[in-house]
Design brief:
It is built from 13 helices and three strands, in the order ααββαβαααααααααα. By secondary structure, the protein is mostly helical.
Length: about 300
């Protein structure tokens, strides 16, 4: 038994969904009254499982036992944490998608590490489809869905880096945002995400479309008036300076690029002798085409749901 402090790694900690207030209190009462019977799992003195048990033990100076795990690299630790958390079916669907995507991303890193150690770096780019397929079988979903969750996870992490509160709301299920809109949100700069979070909090919004977000952000992006000029009447600002919102603009821009994609794919297929192409090159193309296909499928579903 020990009360010696362990290290909390924030990246590992961020992968553990929060307990409800009631569940945390029940766990605290149990540990306080009966002691900590669950070992704290660690890697290199860093907590990787049973964070809440450790937190409560530290708070009340309650002794605990430690179970050491052996991993070669951080990606193995993160993959293990994700897989362990995915066993808990009570997590919100948004959290499960994030964990699945993170699991996929870490399994790719592990594969690359092992291939590099074995001197097979030329095979690194051919692993994505195989890993996504294996995870899809493990969790009863299509390979394209695993790809999609990988993109979802990277987008959530980009949002969390700039505005953690929005990411937390999405993962908890408190803020409903579609997959495509999450990707668009991840591309916004930090100040716009901060303004958006203030807007959502002020109006207690739980579901919002990206077009509405863009409309709100266009107003938020207007430059502030100098301090001395803030007392002047707002009517002094010409109306023509107010940005005009065009809900069709983004789709119109996308439609202009699609014909070039179609033309490029057709030209490549017509000019390539596929039987002579290396397996590595074909695998790389398959990965990209799978990614393109599920993005297109996602766009079609989003449009059909809005009809």
């Amino acid at each position: 038994m020990s009360v010696t402090p362990l290290t909390i790694d924030e990246e590992f900690r961020s992968l553990i969904p929060p307990l409800s207030h009631e569940a945390y209190e029940a766990l605290e009462d149990d540990i306080f009254n009966n002691g900590c019977k669950t070992p704290i799992v660690v890697w290199q003195n860093k907590v990787i499982d049973n964070f809440f048990h450790y937190e409560i033990c530290q708070k009340w100076e309650i002794p605990y036992t430690v179970s050491e795990r052996d991993f070669s690299i951080r990606a193995e630790v993160i993959s293990w944490i994700c897989k362990k958390q995915l066993q808990d079916l009570t997590h919100p669907e948004e959290t499960r998608r994030f964990l699945l995507g993170k699991y996929y991303e870490m399994e790719k890193e592990i594969f690359m590490y092992e291939e590099t150690q074995a001197g097979n770096s030329s095979h690194i780019h051919s692993c994505q489809y195989k890993i996504a397929s294996q995870i899809g079988k493990e969790y009863h979903m299509s390979t394209s869905t695993v790809y999609k969750y990988g993109i979802y996870t990277r987008a959530i992490e980009d949002i969390a880096h700039k505005e953690p509160t929005i990411a937390a709301k999405i993962l908890s299920g408190k803020l409903k945002v579609s997959h495509n809109n999450i990707i668009e949100l991840s591309r916004l700069p930090k100040d716009q995400l901060h303004n958006l979070n203030s807007h959502l909090s002020e109006r207690d919004i739980e579901r919002i479309s990206y077009s509405e977000m863009r409309h709100e952000l266009q107003w938020k992006r207007l430059p502030s008036l100098p301090q001395a000029a803030k007392a002047e009447p707002q009517t002094d600002i010409p109306i023509k300076q107010t940005p005009k919102y065009d809900p069709d603009a983004e789709l119109a821009s996308l439609m202009l690029t699609i014909p070039s994609w179609i033309s490029s794919i057709k030209r490549t297929l017509n000019n390539t002798n596929l039987p002579l192409v290396s397996e590595t090159a074909k695998q790389k193309l398959k990965v990209k085409l799978h990614e393109l296909r599920f993005v297109i499928d996602s766009a079609l579903r989003a449009i059909e749901e809005d009809d």
